[in-house]
Structure formats: C-alpha cells, structure tokens
Specification:
InterPro entries: Amidase_CS (IPR020556), Amidase_dom (IPR023631), AS_sf (IPR036928). It contains 13 helices and ten strands. By secondary structure, it is α/β, with parallel strands linked by helices.
Length: 423
Amino acid sequence: MNTLLEPGLNGAFVRDGFGALPAEVATEVAAEVAARTAAHSVAPTTSQLTLVGQRLAVKDVFDVKGLRAGDGNPTWAAQQPLATSTAFAVQTLLEHGAQWVGKTVTDELTYSLAGVNVHYGTPSNPASPQRIPGGSSSGSAVAVAAGHADIGLGTDCGGSIRLPASYCGIWGIRPTHGRIATNGCFTLAHSFDTVGWFARDGALLTDVFNALAHSETRTLPERVMVCLPDDLVTLLHIEVRTAFASVFDTLSERFDTSLLTSASLAPETWAQSFRVLQAAEIAQQYGAWALQHLDSFGADIRARMQAAVTINSKQVHAAQRVRSDAIRALAHVFDESDTYIVMPTLPWIAPLIGASGVEVDEARVRSQQMLCIAGLAGLPQVNLPWTSFDGAPLGLSVIGARGDDEGVLAVARAVHDALARSV
C-alpha cells in the first residue's frame, strides 16, 4: 500500500490534507464567505460566491496554510516547512465558495509531461485506463475527469495543463503568462510557469477564470477569424490530420477562416529553444539541490536534471533570439483583433501504460512542438474536448493574443458548440 496516497479515487489524491482543510484555514475561509454572503443580502450585485458547491482539487505544488507542499518528491517534501499562508489561487477559489477536496499527485518537481511518478504511482486515466494520464498536473486532471472534483487546479510550464486535459478528455486552460498571480505556488521555470485549471465544461472553466482574474465573461464578437497553422499539419498523426480537415470545414460555416502559410511558424526550432530556456531556468533554481539528491528522482527526471545543469550561456543566448523571433511571428498572426489559432492540442493520443521510456519521450518531444507555441510567447490557450482515436481522447485548442484570455474562452466554447451541432 502506498502511504503517500489517499486510497482509491483513481490514485489522484495525496493523503496529506485530504478531505478537510487545516482548521485555521477553514475558519478564515468561512469568515470570508459569511462576509460575502452578508454583503450579497444587502447588495446582490456585489456577490462573488460564484463557485458555491464546486469541489476543488489542488495540485500538490500550492501552499495551504498548515500543510506542506510535496511537489511530487518525498525527499524535497521532507525539507519544506509547513506553509504559513495559502496560495492566492487556492484562497481565492475557496473564498468564492469552492469546496475543498484535497491535494493531487504531480510529477516530480513538475518536470515531466507523462503523469508517471516513481514515488506516488500513475493516476488512472478514467477516459482511457490503459493509457497514461499526462502530467505534471496528472492528479488534478484525473480527479476532474473521474468526477471526484469539479475544478482541478494545476500549473502549466511546458504543457502540464493542456496535455493531460487532452489525454483525459476534459477542458483545461493555460492563461496568459502572468495573468494569474502565482503567489504561494512552486514554479519550475519562472518565465514559463502559469497557474492553470481543469473542468468538465467550458462554463465552469470560465467562471474560475473570472474569479481568479477579477474579470467578466466576454460576449463573442460578430466576426471571428480562426486560423489553421499549416506548419503544424505535418506533425499530426495521419488519422488526426484527416479528422481535423473535416473540423475546419465545419468551422468555416460559423467563422471566418484562413490558413497560416507554411513557414509562418517554426515548431521544431521553437521547441528546441523552449527546452533550452526551460532547462536553464530549472538549473538556476534547483540544479544544486537536484545534483545533491539525484538518487531521489525517477530515472527520467534524474536524466533531465543532469542535462539541465549542462546548459551554457551561449545556448541560452541563441535560444533567447529564437524566442524573440517566435514572439514577433505570433504577434503578427494576431495583429488583427479577434483572430485565433485553432488546432489539435497534440499530434496524437496518450501512450499506453508500459510503453518504453523511449516511446514516452518521443511523444513528449513531438508534443512540445505544438505546446511550445503558447509557451514561448506567453499566450493563452484553452484545450476543449474534441474526439477520440482507438478509444482514447484527443483535444482541440484555441490560442489567442497575449492578454485575450476572455476571447479565447469565448471562442473555445463557440467552437465546441459548433462541433457539437455538426454531429
């Protein structure tokens, strides 16, 4: 029996803090909710209890006062102090009425996209139990997909919300970098990490964004342009390519559409730049600790950490130039307002459990060529449920201009509705 895990529940939850908030946090939240309820009775428009009754699962990288953030590695966890405050994102959702369920499994120090953790195990993907769930926000994704929670709070650095959302057949959002405060949250690579979350429907995904960003739901504009990046088509599995061609035909009946000509994007070059810059930032923050505790990591994370500390300044400078080029290229795509990229989130479905390390790593590298687009430029991206192949889900994504999270959410919901009507 794995003593780190809460039994059952698809292996999604860690045992620490499951089922009940520390008393002090619960008291603070109850007082805030009572104050907002009282304010609502006086002036209903001031009510912010928009998440009442929604069950909240939280990736074990967020501080919760009185608990210890484990970050997927027991050796790391043992050296962390008990949190003296609660992370902004967690506190805000609780104060909007969300109901605490517990903390969820994450890959070690979040440095993986597989959802496989040598210490905690692999949460069971309810959408396709024979396949991996994807990481590093694996537990939160599985908790939502299995119905154990309604909101799954996580983080996305290189795809840790978008990829597991696709693999598990649910909604997920990576907001604009910096749009949601990361206070009280473990970050792997500071210029890439964002707070993100999962839900089973687009309306709740939007409600969570509105609560965290102090925003309001956006009405879909009359004219919306959706773009297909031609450079990504060759990355897709042949079955995905065929299915997406049909999707784009359907969307052309609802939206203005265009094809981003070949060489508009450079996914392979961009992905390599992303890997270098991410690794350099990881080495900067965690390299010394990792080298002292290499034996505490699973083989895949250990190898990644060892490689990260070898990145040199010449590589970083070259990668930064590529990143600047990518930012300029993507800004040009979104020069005209209400323009969005629509694409499959990933090239293919999740690898099977038990697939070789080589196979899993190959899937990771291919996926990064699609995930790095929003990551390098800090753009908002929403994964929405789309279709399945061999009984396993694959998601569709909407990417928009930096800061246009509200528009991306509105378009993603409209795309989902348009595809649902065409079935």
